[in-house]
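Journal club prep, shared notes

We agreed each person brings one worked example of a sequence with its structure written out as tokens. Mine is Redox-sensing transcriptional repressor Rex. I'm keeping it raw so we can talk through how to read the token line rather than staring at a rendered picture. Sequence first:
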Amino acid sequence: MTEQHPAPGVRGVSAAPRSDGLHSTKSLHAAKDIPQATVSRLATYLRVLSVMVDEGTLIVSSEELAAAAGVGSAKLRKDLSFLGPNGVRGVGYDVSRLRDRIETALGLDQGHRVVLVGVGNLGRALAGYGGFGRRGFAMVGLFDTAPGVVGTVVSELEVRDAGALLAACIELQPTIAVIAVPDEAAQNVCDRLVEAGLRCILSFTPVELEAPDHVEVRRVDLAVEMQMLSFRSARNAEIVDAEAATANQSRVPSTRLGRSRGPRSAATAASAPAQGTVANTTTNSKGSVVRQ
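Then the structure, token by token:
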């Protein structure tokens, strides 16, 4: 689960530039807000389009792009309408051009400089993830307080002392900070990042961080994500069991009821011929019945 503290009056992408001199962000949609749910799907479309560009695909239809992104084509067209006119009816979308427009909408055309505080197991994994660079996020600084970690090299970056975070941020001019420290240290690190001028913070601690309204904080709680998966798994199992039970019931043959003719008397039953035989009888002179 991710949580956020949006800047006031902003839904989805915030285009307000920073005024502290550290960096500025280019605004594409100053007059049109993009809903947060659409922003999330735009990121998915961007990933799919980047793969298509690498594969040499030039044109893609809305149906093909929607299927690859796992959404409906109508929802995709509505999402892309926030970017202005796109595509040609009956032809499709120019893959490279659409990718560039989404990158601009997400503020990725200028790129982002990222600093990470907390170089433990999770921090090292994040620092070494190559996907950030391919998507416009350059890791420019790593920070920690452990004497055995400060000064070491992780993913070609020397780990700096977190005590010098403010001065380092002035030097590195980051646009995004990542917090991967123990829970008890998270708020203090957040406060120092805000003091250093950061307005976008991604936290991997389950602690809810307090930050000014102008600072965007997103919290990723991996345990909660797993709990959500557990819930979905249980619900899906219930649905499968219910469908199986319904299918079994539909296969049970129904009993056909006929008209009741009432009980037969013993005399009637005795005098009735056996089923499947034809009785041909005559009466002899003594009155007995003789079967022919």
